[in-house]
Design goal:
Elements: H1 7-33, H2 36-44, H3 48-57, H4 60-88, H5 93-121, H6 123-140, H7 142-158, H8 172-180, H9 188-199, H10 205-208, E1 210-211, E2 218-219, H11 224-233, E3 238-243, E4 245-254, H12 255-264, H13 269-277, E5 283-285, H14 290-300, E6 304-308, E7 314-319, H15 320-328, E8 343-345, E9 351-354, H16 359-366, H17 378-386, E10 395-398, E11 401-408, E12 413-419
Parallel strand pairs: 2-3, 5-6
Antiparallel strand pairs: 1-7, 3-4, 6-7, 8-9, 9-12, 10-11, 11-12
Helix pairs in contact: 1-4, 1-5, 1-6, 2-3, 3-6, 4-5, 4-7, 5-6, 8-9
Length: 426
């Protein structure tokens, strides 16, 4: 009786080896192609396969060592088995060579290209079930994997390569790319808000502040009747109180503190001064980034700050609403935050804008692309470009925008006509 296995059993063993080779190749690609952040989310949600895959990927050298060890055993056993089958069939060297060629073709197409392509296209479908198999195999074969990795890591160290796993953290620019590629998964409006949050670190309070000359406040040295008129007509909930000039600020007046006294006619200059002094002014450097200032507002429980330069002179005023509008867009009708809306559309399609409007606000609200790497206001942008205070009627081209000076004063431009570039035709 012939003790050698039957040809049917040999072919079945060969088929099993090919299936294992395809599984190892596809699962390796699938595990390495997994989205690590999606995997963390699935693991946190209680998916056991995701937790096992996450544990395996913490040491990718061990995982790769295990898979390659198994793949090597399969890829060595398969040609030996094909040679044995060829000899059993009574073939000579030609049959062995022909069988090796057929095996090479099957390994390439069915055990490498096809499974790896599937693993790259649908990593979770293959990687998570594979994690259930590789986890116990790694435990059983750990001594062999450890020794293999010891030799491989030693070789890498000779070439100055560390086996430390690279961090998976993303930079701001990479996060912008992730948000932009989210597509329908994140609504367009939410994408804009996320990008705006990332942009906060690229802008300072100086970019969005109300300029010094436009700060609405109360000069305590003014005529009392004029002060009362200001209080009655004010549309702001908070007003700075100063003495003579804005740099000599006394404090911040909340209208709730004086509205009842004002209505009863019992308000006087001393009461007003005392109410303002109860709330000390809050100063911030002009170079403070918006993300930092937003945290400072929250930490200090403030809603308004005065922006000062390196000499301590007040340059403008910024509120928490100004920063929030950088994220969500305009959401209030407060006149203090509508300066950037001071743009009027003309019949010919041009726009007439106040030259005191900030470039950043104009770009955001009008979807323009005026330069923002220089002066903060439209007036400053034109004056820096021309290096002089222009006469009315002066026209210039900047970043494909035609700008025409309409009104000027002794030391500043008042209004500008803007003609944006035409949108390309479809």
């Amino acid at each position: 009786m012939d003790p050698s296995p039957s040809l049917g059993l040999l072919f079945a063993a060969l088929a099993a080896l090919l299936i294992l080779a395809a599984f190892f190749a596809g699962s390796e690609t699938a595990l390495m192609s997994l989205n690590r952040y999606r995997l963390k989310h699935m693991a946190a949600a209680g998916n056991r396969g995701a937790r096992l895959a996450e544990a395996l990927l913490r040491r990718p050298d061990r995982l790769i060592g295990l898979i390659l060890l198994l793949s090597t055993l399969v890829n060595v056993a398969a040609p030996m088995l094909v040679g044995y089958i060829a000899l059993r069939l009574g073939g000579g060297e030609f049959f062995v060579a022909f069988g090796a060629a057929i095996l090479a073709f099957m390994l390439l197409i069915f055990c490498e290209v096809a499974p790896k392509t599937y693993g790259a296209l649908h990593p979770a479908r293959l990687a998570l079930p594979a994690a259930y198999i590789f986890t116990p195999l790694l435990f059983l074969l750990y001594p062999f994997v450890w020794f293999t990795n010891l030799l491989a890591n030693g070789l890498l160290r000779l070439f100055g390569v560390s086996r430390e796993v690279a961090a998976n953290s993303l930079s701001s620019e990479e996060l912008r790319t992730v948000v932009a590629e989210a597509g329908a998964m994140i609504p367009r409006r939410h994408q804009q808000m996320l990008v705006s949050i990332l942009d906060l670190e690229n802008a300072s309070v100086e970019d969005i502040m109300v300029p010094r000359n436009e700060i609405v406040g109360i000069d305590i040295d003014d005529d009392w009747d004029r002060i009362l008129e200001q209080l009655r007509q004010s549309q702001h909930t908070r007003l700075p109180v100063y003495q003579g000039e804005i740099d000599r600020i006394i404090g911040l007046l909340h209208m709730k503190q004086v509205v009842h006294e004002l209505a009863r006619g019992h308000l006087d200059r001393d009461t007003l001064t005392a109410a303002a002094q109860a709330r000390e002014p809050y100063f911030v450097p002009s170079g403070t980034t918006l993300n930092t200032q937003l945290l400072n507002f929250q930490r200090n429980r403030r809603r308004l700050a005065f922006v000062v330069d390196e000499y301590g002179d007040i340059q403008g005023l910024v509120t928490i609403e100004d920063i929030l509008e950088e994220i969500v867009g305009e959401f209030t009708s407060d006149p203090a935050t509508m300066m950037h809306k001071d743009v009027h559309v003309e019949a010919d399609g041009s726009f007439v804008a106040s030259a005191s409007a900030t470039i950043r606000a104009l770009n955001r609200s009008m979807r323009w692309n005026l330069p923002t790497d220089g002066p903060k206001t439209l007036n400053g942008l034109i004056v820096e470009f021309l290096e002089t205070i222009p006469e009315p009627g002066t026209t210039l081209k900047m970043a494909d925008y035609m700008l025409e000076v309409l009104q000027t004063s002794d030391n500043a431009i008042k209004t500008v006509r803007i003609r944006p570039p035409l949108a390309p035709s479809a």
